[in-house]
Amino acid sequence: MDTSITIFSLAYIVILIFPGIIFKRFFFQGAFSGQFNSGLFADRIITSLFWGILVQIISVLTFSRIINVSYQDWRLMLKRFYGQVVQNKLPEISSEQLLNALFYAVYSVAIASILGYFLFRLIRLFGLDLRFPVFRFLNQWHYYFKGEILQTREFRQTPRGRVLSTEVDVMLKDDNGKSNLFCGLLTQYTLGSKNELESLYLTGATRFSQSSNSMKVVPGDIFVIPFSNVKNLNIRYNFQVRQNTELAKYILLSVSAIILVFCLIYPWTINLSLWRKILGGLSLFVAWIFFSITLMSLVPPSNGATPLSLGAKITTIIALVALAITSSIILQVITF
User: Fold this and answer.
1) 113 and 214 together in one domain
2) Which of 25, 183, 201, 313 has the highest Cβ tally under 10 A?
3) Pick from 27, 201, 50, 188: which is nearest to 121 by CA?
4) CA-to-CA distance for 107 and 137, rounded, in angstroms?
5) Are residues 279 and 232 in the same domain?
């Protein structure tokens, strides 16, 4: 019985805990990677167990389809395996079952990593961590230093554009009780094991000089400030001015994307030979490229960009019409 307890303890760790750890390793990425090792040990075990169970459910359901094994087959195999282990017998496993077990182990790890990676990307892409506090990561400094905090409900303001960079004004305290003001562009920062701020890294740093009552450039390339010496911290954002044409660009891009999907799918819905489907799809794709260029030329360019000349617009439209006619002729020919 001691042997069975040991085997099932190892199986519990490998089957449930390990996939959960892999999921969390791929879920906490970039600026939020420090959250992987944060928290109490018991909390980390519970969360790893939860995600491990979810990964195993998805893996079993999909893996059973791949090797064509039903739920009843799984049940009988596990029941036989459990009975042999309880009787202190070496389980009888065929070579095919062993290969399936090894393949399933790799498969479940792959599912855990893919699920963690794409779930993180999904949260960040749609800004769920900014809209709903329950999805927010522990690294609060990332939201402040990247300007994302302005998109949350607590700090929401009138949109002023995209944050390009962050500048900070840092009031430092010295051993004599005096304060020194430093300013600069925040380039990087480091966190401790508990996601507390440890250091700030500034470029283009300047220091306030009381003798001249002005800011003086600090010689050097990178100015490192231990956060333990910081008395006050002011954050300033540099914005890229958002034009009124952004909405029109998004609408045109959406229309263009819908047309692209139609161009790629439509030839495969017709009862034609393979090469005719490929030819029709290529002709539609080329026509779509020029059509998208024409649509985007109707929108004023961003700041600093050179707009298309009238001649270029006319040439593009003529080429679009010619390609549209050519594509229609090709589709008619390959259809009939």
Assistant:
1) no
2) 183
3) 27
4) 28
5) no
Residue 311 sits in which domain range? 246-335
Q: Is 114 found in the same domain as 25?
A: yes
Domain closes at, from 182, 212, 240 = 240
pLDDT at 235 over 90: yes
Q: What is residue 319's three-state secondary structure?
A: helix
Average pLDDT over residues 268-273: 69
Residue 224 pLDDT > 50: yes
User: Residue written as tokens 């609060």?
Assistant: 140
Q: What is the pLDDT of residue 304?
A: 47
Domain boundary among 210, 240, 270: 240
SS3 271: coil
17 vs 45: CA distance, rounded Å: 7
- Residues 157, 95 share a domain: no
Whether pTM > 0.90 for this model: the answer is no
DSSP codes, 100-167: HHHHHHHHHHHHHHHHHHHHHHHHHHTTHHHH-GGG--S-HHHHHHTTGGGGSTTT------EEEEEE
